[in-house]
Write a structure and sequence with these properties.
Length: about 525
């Protein structure tokens, strides 16, 4: 589904009111795509997309059937921003350009514009016509604001209304003060790209403190990565190191997302003095996969053999069971733990899954972060590509245990580091079980009935919880409640908004509209 949203629409529309170029943008549901016919002269072009840079809502671009690249995910910040997703050579004449919701997205992507630009030019304003010529690339730079009379040529900002950026005297030194009176996203972008080879590392560091209110700051390098540090009232030194992918240009960027005043100085961007080990636990994690759903099997509980150790020694050629720090525990990982290869030559791992109910299953392996190969019992080996879940195929489980073999593959030059592991078996989707949905952007209570029969041995989460409770010996009456019992309890409160509403009333309402008993195919 493709839907054009005006600036007052629900579902992030209102939050994009001050960033949409023409008061409207496009929402691409997972799997949706837009196609355009473009005519170009012969030459090399960089493809830019103005979209939300939010994990699980990224945007991909294809030209003439070839994928050019995708926007990077980041903190949940509903601000439309330009991202350069790739570079390609085109011949003179017509071409087909496709803007699509990236495969694996769990939620809709939000897109405002797409642009084919000549190298060394970048769109830094809202309009595709607002192009700025970039300076010559450099390996890095320092901006301490001591020598700047004002914010000038090396930088570009987009203040509107009650927003401004100034170089001021404070605490005996010159620094940058940012005032964001409106709370709309205020972005500061360097006009000097970084000349960085794929696979190298780039560090962005600065001193910062908030004066009033500001809670949201996103710092990073376009096309490389970004993070959202916590800003306090006391001066603090913040830094983050990223791996450089293929592509470019790479432009340092700071976005101030909330109302308030902030002071900043000693901004340094470039290669770190001492490169960090990509095998360091939690260092270069793959982006979070918010689309994960299913019955989860913790891999560390199913390892066969002694290839896994709890000693996290980078480069020792084994696999380590690592616990991630809280700020590194992205949603991809469960329970804060992950299995991590310690070198390119770590031996293959074997996992064995027993005591599964007989029947057919669809099996998926979570994002490994780096290339790997996986083979499930009775299924052909598949290559796991970073940035997405991998389907391992369908397997019929009988009396024999199921085994999984996972091995590292040849590393990508621009993406060195360990292979991470997570394993999933599917649960039911929202089309396969009953549920009660609260209001979101409206004032209606929603009852959902199954439209599909659950595939194979998939079971609703509530049924899994009931089965676990019985296995663990819990005999509380609540574990005997059916889904309908829980729905009745949820709406039996004495709140005036729910007066007169019962499960029977909701079912009758569905039947009166002629949809209560329809299957997915019939609908």
């Amino acid at each position: 589904m493709v839907q054009r949203l005006d600036s007052t629409a629900r579902d992030f529309g209102a939050m994009a009111r001050d960033t949409a170029a023409a008061g409207a943008f496009v929402r691409l549901a997972p799997g949706a795509r837009l196609e355009f016919a473009v005519v170009t002269e012969a030459g090399t072009y960089e493809v830019w997309v103005r979209a939300f840079t939010i994990d699980g809502r990224t945007t991909s671009v294809l030209v003439d059937g070839r994928e050019v690249g995708a926007t990077l995910g980041g903190p949940d910040s509903p601000a439309l921003q330009w991202s350069m997703v790739g570079r390609l050579a085109l011949g003179a004449g017509p071409h087909k350009l496709v803007v699509a919701s990236t495969a694996g997205n769990a939620k809709p992507a939000y897109v405002d514009a797409v642009l084919l630009a000549e190298p060394h030019w970048a769109p830094l304003g809202r309009s595709v016509a607002d192009l700025t010529r970039l300076e010559s690339p450099a390996p890095g730079f320092r901006a301490d604001f001591e020598t700047l009379g004002d914010l000038s040529a090396p930088w570009r900002a987009n203040p509107t209304g009650d927003q401004w950026l100034r170089v001021v005297e404070s605490d005996g030194r010159r620094l940058l003060r940012v005032h964001n009176g409106s709370g709309a996203p205020l972005t500061l972008t360097a006009l000097q790209p970084l000349a960085l080879p794929p696979g190298s590392q780039v560090r962005i560091s600065f001193r910062v403190r908030k004066l009033t209110l500001l809670e949201g700051l996103v710092a990073g390098v376009t096309g490389v990565g970004q993070w959202s540090p916590m800003v306090r009232r006391d001066w603090q030194h913040l830094e983050r190191v990223f791996l450089v992918p293929a592509g470019g240009p790479f432009l340092p960027r700071l976005t101030f997302l909330a109302a308030g005043d902030t002071e900043l100085d000693d901004l340094v961007v470039g290669p770190p003095e001492q490169p960090v080990s990509p095998y360091e636990t939690g260092r270069f994690l793959p982006p979070p996969l918010l689309s994960r759903a299913g019955r989860l099997f913790e891999l560390e509980r199913h390892v066969v053999g002694d290839e896994v150790t709890t000693a996290d020694v980078d480069g020792d050629g084994r696999w380590a069971l690592c616990r991630l720090a809280r700020d590194e525990n992205v949603p991809m990982f469960s329970r804060g733990t992950v299995l991590k290869s310690e070198s390119q030559n770590s031996p293959p791992l074997r996992f064995r899954f027993a005591d599964l109910p007989p029947g057919p299953y669809s099996a998926w392996l979570g994002d490994t972060g780096r290339p790997a190969t996986a083979e499930l019992s009775g299924c052909p080996a598949v290559r796991c590509e970073p940035g997405r879940q991998t389907s391992l195929g369908r397997v019929v489980i009988g009396d024999s245990p199921v085994e999984l073999r996972l091995a590292t593959a040849a590393p990508q030059p621009h993406n060195p580091g360990p292979v991470y592991a997570d394993y999933l078996l599917p649960a039911t989707t929202f089309l396969e079980h009953s549920d009660l949905y609260s209001a979101y952007g409206h004032y209606w209570l929603q009852l959902a009935r199954p439209a599909l029969t659950p595939y194979a041995e998939c079971r609703p989460n509530a049924e899994v919880f009931r089965s676990l409770a019985r296995r663990m010996g819990f005999d509380d009456p609540c574990f005997d409640d059916s889904d309908d019992d829980m729905i009745r309890q949820a709406i039996s409160s004495r709140h005036p908004y729910l007066e007169g509403i019962t499960l029977d009333v909701l079912v009758q309402e569905l039947k009166s509209k002629g949809i209560a008993q329809k299957t997915f195919a019939e609908a």
